[in-house]
Protein backbone atom coordinates (compact mmCIF):
# COMPACT_ATOMS: atom_id res chain seq x y z
CA UNK A 1 0.00 0.00 0.00
CA UNK A 2 1.53 3.31 -1.13
CA UNK A 3 1.05 6.26 1.28
CA UNK A 4 3.51 8.62 -0.36
CA UNK A 5 2.05 12.09 -0.69
CA UNK A 6 3.68 13.00 -4.00
CA UNK A 7 4.11 16.63 -4.93
CA UNK A 8 1.78 17.90 -7.60
CA UNK A 9 3.24 19.87 -10.52
CA UNK A 10 2.77 23.25 -8.81
CA UNK A 11 4.32 22.01 -5.55
CA UNK A 12 7.24 20.47 -7.44
CA UNK A 13 7.93 23.78 -9.23
CA UNK A 14 7.60 25.71 -5.96
CA UNK A 15 10.02 23.35 -4.21
CA UNK A 16 12.57 23.56 -7.01
CA UNK A 17 12.30 27.34 -7.21
CA UNK A 18 12.68 27.69 -3.43
CA UNK A 19 15.67 25.32 -3.36
CA UNK A 20 17.41 27.10 -6.23
CA UNK A 21 16.79 30.56 -4.77
CA UNK A 22 18.06 29.44 -1.37
CA UNK A 23 21.25 27.97 -2.82
CA UNK A 24 21.99 30.96 -5.05
CA UNK A 25 21.32 33.50 -2.30
CA UNK A 26 23.47 31.81 0.31
CA UNK A 27 26.27 31.08 -2.13
CA UNK A 28 26.54 34.81 -2.85
CA UNK A 29 26.33 35.80 0.82
CA UNK A 30 28.97 33.21 1.73
CA UNK A 31 31.27 34.27 -1.12
CA UNK A 32 31.07 37.95 -0.15
CA UNK A 33 31.95 37.27 3.49
CA UNK A 34 34.82 34.99 2.52
CA UNK A 35 36.25 37.46 0.01
CA UNK A 36 35.92 40.64 2.04
CA UNK A 37 36.20 39.44 5.64
CA UNK A 38 37.86 36.03 5.42
CA UNK A 39 35.13 34.41 7.48
CA UNK A 40 32.38 31.94 6.69
CA UNK A 41 28.78 32.95 7.25
CA UNK A 42 28.53 30.57 10.23
CA UNK A 43 31.24 32.55 12.05
CA UNK A 44 29.58 35.84 11.15
CA UNK A 45 26.31 34.57 12.60
CA UNK A 46 28.01 33.55 15.86
CA UNK A 47 29.55 37.03 16.15
CA UNK A 48 26.17 38.67 15.47
CA UNK A 49 24.38 36.56 18.06
CA UNK A 50 27.01 37.35 20.67
CA UNK A 51 26.99 41.06 19.80
CA UNK A 52 23.25 41.23 20.47
CA UNK A 53 23.37 39.31 23.76
CA UNK A 54 23.61 41.02 27.15
CA UNK A 55 27.28 41.73 27.89
CA UNK A 56 28.01 40.13 24.47
CA UNK A 57 27.89 36.75 26.24
CA UNK A 58 25.83 33.57 25.76
CA UNK A 59 25.99 30.05 27.09
CA UNK A 60 27.54 27.78 24.51
CA UNK A 61 24.51 25.45 24.62
CA UNK A 62 22.13 28.35 23.94
CA UNK A 63 24.38 29.63 21.16
CA UNK A 64 24.35 26.19 19.54
CA UNK A 65 20.57 25.86 19.85
CA UNK A 66 19.79 29.28 18.42
CA UNK A 67 22.39 28.91 15.67
CA UNK A 68 20.74 25.64 14.64
CA UNK A 69 24.14 24.01 15.00
CA UNK A 70 25.29 20.88 16.75
CA UNK A 71 27.20 21.53 19.95
CA UNK A 72 30.33 19.91 18.53
CA UNK A 73 30.18 21.98 15.34
CA UNK A 74 29.66 25.15 17.37
CA UNK A 75 32.50 24.25 19.72
CA UNK A 76 34.83 23.82 16.74
CA UNK A 77 33.75 27.17 15.27
CA UNK A 78 34.19 28.96 18.60
CA UNK A 79 37.65 27.40 18.95
CA UNK A 80 38.58 28.97 15.60
CA UNK A 81 37.10 32.30 16.71
CA UNK A 82 39.13 32.05 19.93
CA UNK A 83 42.31 31.53 17.88
CA UNK A 84 41.48 34.73 16.00
CA UNK A 85 41.00 36.53 19.34
CA UNK A 86 37.36 37.28 18.55
CA UNK A 87 35.68 35.12 21.20
CA UNK A 88 36.66 33.97 24.68
CA UNK A 89 35.23 30.99 26.53
CA UNK A 90 34.87 30.75 30.28
CA UNK A 91 33.34 28.15 32.58
CA UNK A 92 29.97 28.58 34.20
CA UNK A 93 30.78 28.56 37.90
CA UNK A 94 27.52 26.86 38.94
CA UNK A 95 27.48 24.22 36.21
CA UNK A 96 30.68 22.29 35.53
CA UNK A 97 29.43 21.26 32.10
CA UNK A 98 28.43 24.78 31.07
CA UNK A 99 30.58 27.32 29.29
CA UNK A 100 30.09 30.91 28.26
CA UNK A 101 31.13 32.44 24.96
CA UNK A 102 31.99 36.13 25.08
CA UNK A 103 32.56 38.43 22.10
CA UNK A 104 35.84 40.30 22.59
CA UNK A 105 36.51 43.86 21.51
CA UNK A 106 38.56 42.47 18.62
CA UNK A 107 35.62 40.26 17.65
CA UNK A 108 33.28 43.24 17.76
CA UNK A 109 35.68 45.18 15.55
CA UNK A 110 35.82 42.28 13.06
CA UNK A 111 32.02 42.14 13.01
CA UNK A 112 31.74 45.89 12.52
CA UNK A 113 34.21 45.70 9.63
CA UNK A 114 32.34 42.82 7.96
CA UNK A 115 28.79 44.12 8.48
CA UNK A 116 28.57 46.86 5.79
CA UNK A 117 29.56 44.54 2.93
CA UNK A 118 27.39 41.73 4.26
CA UNK A 119 24.33 43.96 4.62
CA UNK A 120 24.82 45.41 1.15
CA UNK A 121 25.02 41.90 -0.31
CA UNK A 122 21.85 40.82 1.51
CA UNK A 123 20.10 43.94 0.26
CA UNK A 124 21.26 43.34 -3.34
CA UNK A 125 20.48 39.64 -3.54
CA UNK A 126 17.22 39.64 -1.59
CA UNK A 127 15.47 42.89 -0.77
CA UNK A 128 16.23 44.81 -3.97
CA UNK A 129 14.43 42.08 -5.93
CA UNK A 130 11.26 42.17 -3.81
CA UNK A 131 8.39 44.56 -3.40
CA UNK A 132 7.35 45.53 0.14
CA UNK A 133 4.39 43.15 -0.16
CA UNK A 134 6.68 40.31 -1.25
CA UNK A 135 9.04 41.08 1.64
CA UNK A 136 6.13 40.87 4.08
CA UNK A 137 4.96 37.60 2.51
CA UNK A 138 8.48 36.16 2.68
CA UNK A 139 8.70 37.01 6.38
CA UNK A 140 5.28 35.52 7.08
CA UNK A 141 6.13 32.31 5.22
CA UNK A 142 9.55 32.09 6.88
CA UNK A 143 8.05 32.60 10.35
CA UNK A 144 5.51 29.84 9.69
CA UNK A 145 8.24 27.46 8.54
CA UNK A 146 10.49 28.26 11.52
CA UNK A 147 7.57 27.66 13.88
CA UNK A 148 6.76 24.39 12.12
CA UNK A 149 10.35 23.12 12.14
CA UNK A 150 11.60 24.18 15.59
CA UNK A 151 10.54 23.85 19.20
CA UNK A 152 11.03 27.51 20.02
CA UNK A 153 12.32 30.84 18.84
CA UNK A 154 15.82 30.92 17.42
CA UNK A 155 16.18 34.67 17.15
CA UNK A 156 17.01 36.72 19.12
CA UNK A 157 19.36 34.56 21.12
CA UNK A 158 18.78 36.06 24.57
CA UNK A 159 20.20 33.64 27.08
CA UNK A 160 17.37 32.27 29.16
CA UNK A 161 19.53 29.46 30.53
CA UNK A 162 21.98 31.56 32.47
CA UNK A 163 23.89 30.18 35.38
CA UNK A 164 23.18 32.14 38.59
CA UNK A 165 26.79 32.97 39.42
CA UNK A 166 27.42 34.51 36.02
CA UNK A 167 24.23 36.58 36.36
CA UNK A 168 25.42 37.81 39.77
CA UNK A 169 28.87 38.60 38.36
CA UNK A 170 27.31 40.52 35.45
CA UNK A 171 25.07 42.48 37.82
CA UNK A 172 28.05 43.35 40.04
CA UNK A 173 30.08 44.42 37.01
CA UNK A 174 27.24 46.60 35.74
CA UNK A 175 26.79 48.19 39.18
CA UNK A 176 30.52 48.89 39.45
CA UNK A 177 30.59 50.42 35.98
CA UNK A 178 27.58 52.61 36.80
CA UNK A 179 29.23 53.77 40.04
CA UNK A 180 32.49 54.53 38.24
CA UNK A 181 30.74 56.63 35.59
CA UNK A 182 28.39 58.31 38.03
CA UNK A 183 25.33 56.86 36.29
UniProtKB/TrEMBL annotation:
User: What Pfam families does the annotation carry?
Assistant: MarR_2
Origin, by domain of life? Bacteria
Q: What is this protein called?
A: MarR family transcriptional regulator
Q: Which PROSITE patterns match?
A: HTH_MARR_2
Organism from which the protein derives: Pseudonocardia ailaonensis
- Kindly give the Gene3D superfamilies that the UniProt entry links to this protein: Winged helix-like DNA-binding domain superfamily/Winged helix DNA-binding domain
Q: Which residues are in the HTH marR-type domain?
A: 11-147
